[in-house]
Amino acid sequence: MLKPLVLHLSGVQDTAPALTVPSGFACEKRPGRREYLRVCLSPDDAGRPVAVLASGGALSSLATSEGLVEFAEDLTAIRVGDALPYRPHAEFG
Length: 93
Description:
By secondary structure, the protein is an alpha+beta fold. It has helices at residues 2-9, 58-64; strands at 19-22, 27-28, 35-43, 49-53, 67-71, 77-78, 83-88. It holds the Pfam family MoeA_C.
């Protein structure tokens, strides 16, 4: 998580677009706050990757997740099948 902060403070623009993956879960939140959810990619019935929430508490879900999906501040709900911006942890390495 430190690398993006250092790059941002150095004035580097984000040039890599996020991947888009469908949601395999539903959740809700209040508007006005951006959240990043810890997820793993799991194949659906057709073998395509979908984002599923990583299980466990804050630290264990971070350790077992493969990346983050963005829950934008203007959204209040994510439904199964919604397209979500996904960033793999390797991108932050």
